Amino acid sequence: MGFIASAVSAVIGFIGSLSVGGFSIGRALLGIGLSLGLSALQKLLAPKPKATPSGVQLNLQLGSDVGRQVVFGRIATRGHLAFFQTSGEENKRLELVYILSEGWCDGLEAVWIGGKKKTLTQLSTDGNGMTTYSIEGYGGFARVRFHDGRPGQAADAITVANSASRLTMNDRFAGMCYAAVTLIYDPDQFASGPPEFTWQMRGYRCYDVRKDSTAGGTGLHRLNDPATWQWTENGAIHGYNFLSGIVAEGQVVLGPGIPSYDLIASTWIAAANVCDETVALTAGGTEPRYRCAYVLVAEDADFRSLIEPVIQTMAGYLIEYQGAFGLLAGAAQVSVVTITDADFRVGPEQRFSLGLSRTERTNEVYGQFVDPAAGYQANSYPPIISASARAEDGEPLRVSLDLAAVPSGTQAQRIGTARLRETRAQANGTFTLGNHLLFLDPGDWITWQSARYGWTKLFRVMTRQLNLDDSITVALREVNYQIYAWSSSDEKPIEIPGGAPGDPGYMSTVSSFSAEAIMIDAESGAQRPAVKLTWTPVADPTVDAVIIEYRRINAVAATRLRDDSPEDGAYVFDTVGAGDQYEFRATIATTPVRPTTWTTWVGVQVGQSQLPPGSINFDDLAQSAKDAFKPIVPIRYLALATIKEATQSFTQETSNHVQDTNARASFTSQIRLQVSATEALATKVDILEAQVGEDIQAQIAQEATARANADGALSQRIDTVSATANGNTAAIQTVSQAVASVDGKLSATWMVTLDVDGKIAGLKAYNDGTVSSFQLTADHIIINALADLSINTGALNVSGDMNIGNKIFFRPGSNPRIEIYD
To answer: Taking a C-beta distance cutoff of 8 angstroms, is the pair 292, 310 a contact?
Structure first.
């Protein structure tokens, strides 16, 4: 009995579940992976929309369409299975190649098989980056040859020799760190198929500017010589290397490749030193203040999003200033200057608030970190709860903060505590300061002694902008020294054994989780779609809530919900799009915190909204559609909106024309800007006009309005084209309008009106977040479909040709068609 031989069958075997010979090469290799959701305190780091890479790669990746990835720090990864081949008598020999990381990595430490850590025993090294190991418990039936990815590494000769000529010595996997595995079939060792390997390793060797004597540091590191670089767990150094570019064989293969002169060295050095500071532990000893362990995967996302989990390992901020990038680690700083109320200048709009909104504050932080003690699976750190802040807020304000690159539960607690405390220092604003403070940079701490407010507070400079008059506009956020304070007495134990998944005494997730499309009644008597989620009612008193994530099918990002009644076994989710496909999964929140797992995703197709029988009155509907459209009045005079009691205003008008005795062509433009203490308004009108005589005229007019006041905001654009001859006019007008009010009301309107001497036709779309509508006005409406057409409104189900009042004709099926007559 042996391994599967042919390459084609092997590919099928890996994807499917084909069993040939000794190994069942199928889904067992795929395994069950860990998906780490990554979120930050709301608005704290101003996160951008992004794809979410995993902090630890526990899914085996197959195929060629796999993004580049780099391993930072000490972490576990399943890697990318790039090659496999059987050979020998009865195909008893299997060669496997797992790509682990881009670039030159430091070493392989252990391998996890079936959830158990196996010791690797070094057998030999070639002195050029290849080390051969045996695996604990597998005797002579398994060998691992680790190639560290250094420049010029040789091909794996054993793999090439047993590749059935598919590989040559030119196939070096250049610039890639990889593990080449040889397995010799034995029915006792491999009765359940080939092992599922998870590789524990020390990742990418990094350049450390602190150790470069030619760049102001001390040591032999050189930016252009990877042989001088070293492995590190320092997240600031990881971030610097990613931004400057991950190097393989002398080429940047991952990262934006920012030149060193655009990386503000002093900030990266300071942040790296903060990360290396030691923190005392309750059990004795110390650990670095901030460490990073992360598999950074190339995604179709901005590099700022990709590096955000690394920045989060130090409760930090990425600073961007005039195209250069710096780093601010979570640590108290020395105030660089003391300012008073007299330092503030009258300039652009000033904004100041002594408090944050409830969506910007938190008093409870929950989340997970990557736990080496649990085989680099996700584990929950103890919840960070401020009783005084919760009493001040009058309600729990919970935030999920998953730390996908943090390998320490105590470090996770420090970060969560700092992020919570940051939201309790609430004073913030945007101000203009005099040019004597030009030296201020983002990240600086300053002291503000205010006679007006009667206090002295510390603030962090969040942004800085130079103005034309050499003043600066800065955004300030209150800080204090308590934010980053920590002692071993603050540390809470990490729960692992008692609540580990698989312990029969504890739940790790909900049971029998399912999703069902349902319809619920609306106030109008109509029915709208919803999804009912159910699970086995929870009787475990340690379970506080069911956590639910949902997303549209094929979407990457998921949204999280919380149901605080796990004992009822049901939750109705009613904010779905009609006819859309969704998928849901669930887990649990517990006290005390213990490791939990997610259910598998379950998909559901939601239904369409349905109207009750008899609710459609076609005469009323037609009249309503007609009422939505009014005759078009061409814009001939500029009548811009104004603000009463405006404190500042600006008006600019431009007008040009050329004319002959009987013809004229003109262009007119007017802009008006106005502000008061509570309102801002910007309007613009452009008119192009051509005229011959008194009766022939063509005009194109565009009017735009943007208004914001204490009640909300409005944006509107009106485009009108018209043509007139001998007193007859044809015109088309398009209106786009968006409205948002502070009481939560929203609306979006788009309308096209066609006016021919007062006869109106058009269409209008409207959505206020609760009700949406689409109106058509015309004598004769024809809808042709290119595929089969079926119509089901709840009140009307058409399966064959149908006439309604000799005004509406339906033809579903082949050659589908809808005709509507006035």
So the answer is: yes
